[in-house]
Amino acid sequence: MGRPAPLAEQRLQAGYSQVTSGFLRTLKVPLKKGRFLDEHDTNAGPWAIIVNEAFVRKFFPGEDPIGKQVRLRLDPYPTEEDRTRQIVGVVGDVKQYGLGREAPPLIYASFLQQPDVYPGGAIVAHLWQDLAIRVGPMTHASDLARPIKQIVTELDPDQPVTALTTMQHVLDRSMGDARLYMQLLSIFAGVALFLAGIGIYGVMSYFVTQHTHDIGIRMALGAHPTDIFRLVAKLGFKLISIGIVAGILVAAGVARLISALLFGVKSTDPLTYLLVACVLAGIACVACYIPARRATKVDPMVALRYE
User: Fold this and answer.
1) Could you tell me the pTM of the whole model?
2) Claim to verify: residue 127 and residue 12 sit in the same structural domain
3) Inside any domain, residue 140
């Protein structure tokens, strides 16, 4: 309220759910500002709604939404309510359409505050009801199916109970494809790490073999094994540095291709790049250590005769 009514094609759109006072607490949706809906939000008082942070960012950027009045229009029927609803709270975002998608703007209204009559086919949207139950950590979901059905039957014998599931199952179903892609990428990443380690070891071994004669001369002239180790390790460090820099540049270029598979991590997250670089550097150091150590054991007389 306080703003001119938008044209039909310019109306703001948001998701809408009618919930009981304990629904958001049961799902542990965090309260960011204001209050939750409670048992006092009935038709006898002002109609109240709670919105999520995505709603505030889109429709009230830089404003305090608490106390704002909103008139709802139920599309596509279309039915516009004859009463306004007041925003009394802001809750955290819920990615109810999948972890890979942004949380949409959502409105939560009290189940006890509904129009007496739903014109047209609007009543259809209010016939579907979901029951959320929080159980203890040691309670198995299958043990609750019969008690839940019995309670519902006692309240309304004609009310069927269908689609019993757990939030873990919902989460697993939402992440099904992403988990498969993650497993495949993990396998490829493991193979890549193995090949990288073998490659660095092969390069360093080849370097030691090709420079066996030079190493023998150095040691014959009084070079300490530590100097030989440092010589080989210096080349390994150079290869590691070039590889890490090149890898970061390539990773930053292709990160957008896998951004849809990242949840809670940005494609340019510096901590992730740092951890991966440290892991790769550690593997490369291990691959360099064996040839470098072997170089320090070269017998000068054998090395001088080596061709």
Assistant:
1) 0.62
2) yes
3) no
